[in-house]
Amino acid sequence: MSSGGGRAFLWLPLNRLKVLKMQEQTIKELRNENDSVGTRRRLEGRRAVVTGASRGIGREIALALARDGADVVINYRSSDEDADELARIVDDLGEQAWVYSADVSEMEQVKEMKRSVEKHMGNVDILVNNAGINRDTLFSKMEESAWKEVFSVNMNGVFNCTRVFLEHLEQSSYPRIINITSIVGQMGNVGQANYAASKAGIIGFTKSLAKELARKGINVNAIAPGFIETDMLSGVPDKIRERIISQIPMRRFGKPEEVARAVVFLASDDADYVTGHVLNVNGGMYL
Ligand code: NAI
């Protein structure tokens, strides 16, 4: 596991031929998608930090922001290769990427990340607090460590990044904080008391901060995804997956890019008068 390192995409070795072929295809698809929605790039000239961006929902958020014209800081904890691949795609889309490995639960690492971002990219305008973990088990069996670990990433990580990058946002003309919470924080779930409590905490945090920062012109919103097809869901047994799907009015799991599109909306000027809102992206599972 690496931590505390930052690098611009251009410095990376480009010797992974197989990966590059796959990427060419991805970039073509991304460009086509761009053509189909028109050429309006709502985030031109803005910079975003996305935490936990090496895979899953965070990866799609970073891509969607870049597609709409933003430069992105790709924060992640351990997967150098995934982060580098993503940076290459962002670069091919014509935007700047800065890759930085930092554990968001460690305040010192977050401060170091901010200094590195300032030095190599400048101040950021958009903070997307996406990094999150789960340590699921029935409460009667839940160890204190599972409780603390989840809170240290899901809540302390959000505090650390928001507290540290607030200085940038206060100087931005388009400041946005977007927190990724969860449907589980709204309706609870068996085996997820720690995760649900941390995600419910994010909702209270979002609303309080929205009230506090409105006078500074900083919009603070949250997105509450339902069940989304990512690594987080891949460990769930088939039987339980089927049971969950039967409870979703749209009868399917969501896609990471569907969450990403909601982030772009909240990051854009289209959401100028939206703050303190929790946007559900859940196929109708919780209304
Ligand atoms: P994932 O497990 O696929 O990705 C999580 C990302 O966070 C990874 O890049 C990981 O490296 C990073 N990360 C974890 N701990 C970190 C730390 N201490 N410091 C920096 N980065 C760290 O998860 P997924 O599914 O993409 O979830 C992203 C967010 O969406 C999480 O906050 C999760 O709670 C939330 N969410 C996910 C849902 C789902 O069904 N997949 C549903 C609702 C919310």
Strands, helices and their partners?
Elements: E1 5-8, H1 17-36, E2 47-50, H2 56-67, E3 71-76, H3 80-92, E4 97-101, H4 107-120, E5 126-129, H5 144-154, H6 156-171, E6 176-180, H7 183-187, H8 193-213, E7 219-225, H9 231-234, H10 238-246, H11 256-267, E8 278-281
Parallel strand pairs: 2-3, 2-5, 3-4, 5-6, 6-7, 7-8
Antiparallel strand pairs: 1-4
Bound molecules: 1,4-dihydronicotinamide adenine dinucleotide.
Residues 51-52, 54-58, 75-78, 103-105, 130-133, 153, 157, 180, 182, 225, 227-228, 230-233 line the site of 1,4-dihydronicotinamide adenine dinucleotide.
Can you describe what's shown?
- The protein has 11 helices and 8 strands.
- Strands 1-4-3-2-5-6-7-8 form an 8-stranded mixed beta sheet, with helices on both faces.
- Helix 1 packs across helix 3 and helix 4 packs parallel to helix 6.
- The N and C termini lie far apart (40 Å).
- The chain has a single domain, classed as NAD(P)-binding Rossmann-like Domain (Rossmann fold), CATH 3.40.50.
- The chain has helices at 17-36, 56-67, 80-92, 107-120, 144-154, 156-171, 183-187, 193-213, 231-234, 238-246, 256-267; strands at 5-8, 47-50, 71-76, 97-101, 126-129, 176-180, 219-225, 278-281.
- The chain is of the alpha/beta class.
- Helix 3 (80-92) links the parallel strand 3 and strand 4 (97-101).
- 1,4-dihydronicotinamide adenine dinucleotide (NAI) is lined by residues 51-52, 54-58, 75-78, 103-105, 130-133, 153, 157, 180, 182, 225, 227-228, 230-233.
